[in-house]
Amino acid sequence: MNAGFAPYRDFWVRFITSIVLAFFFVFIGSDSISDIINGRYFIQDTLSGFVLTFIVTSYINIITAYLDIHYSWNKFLATRLIYQLIAGVIIVAVFVLAYMYTYLIVLLGFSKTEVTFFTTEFPISILFIVFWNLLYVGYYFYRENKTQKKELENLQEQLFTFQNVITGDESIHASSTTINTEEPADENDFSANATTTKLKILIAVAGNKNIPIPVETIAFFYKSGNYTTLKTFQSDTYLLNHSLDELVSILEESLFFRANRQFIINLNACRFFTNEENGKLALHLFPENEEDVIISQKRAPVFKEWLNK
To answer: In the predicted model, is pLDDT for residue 189 greater than 70?
Structure first.
């Protein structure tokens, strides 16, 4: 999933945090607030602290959002942790040192012995940098958990609302007993009834929506647990309450092929196939599937013959 890159939408959180921290670092370690306010560098120090904090939080925002897309915590835990530490903590810490050195030593002309930032405020800055990274990490897992719950709810909705398969003007209603009572088909016998009306349009029912799906747009069907799932060439997936045995009898044989007990594939979904041991074939599909589709030695000649029809 490579969605379009977009930073976290927390501008006002970063803005307010930058103001608060700017005043915090100006007043830290001071015995007299009035002396600081009336001091020569109060406005400059406050503005400098605000700019630094806003740049730091904005950078961590952008780099974390980028890493979320390309190196998610779920798939690349070790790599993501290293990149987050380098890009989100170490580089930021070096930038803070360079920024404050330039501001205090170069621009204002203080000597290193006159400046307490590098021994007092800098360690606190490191803690804040780590804390800000952890905030985004926590939000990432919160968002992922929320997304998974929503997907589960949508999955449950589809299971209960996917009611029928339409072929022309005729409805072929799903039987509630066909999912779990299907006898395993012999690996070499996937024959279809030639007299059955062939499927032209599949109607997906989701809530109060009826979604017509032309069968030629379906890349493949596959068995997922006790249910059948279809995947389109646009990588959209829908659940069916029909078995593969039922579907193979109402699909056009020249377009769809029963590869094995788990898959029915569209001719146009087969990118290429490779020869495997013991005369088996491994199909590579489009859209990509997590695992190759294996055709047995006995089914391989039937598959090659089907390709040439």
So the answer is: no
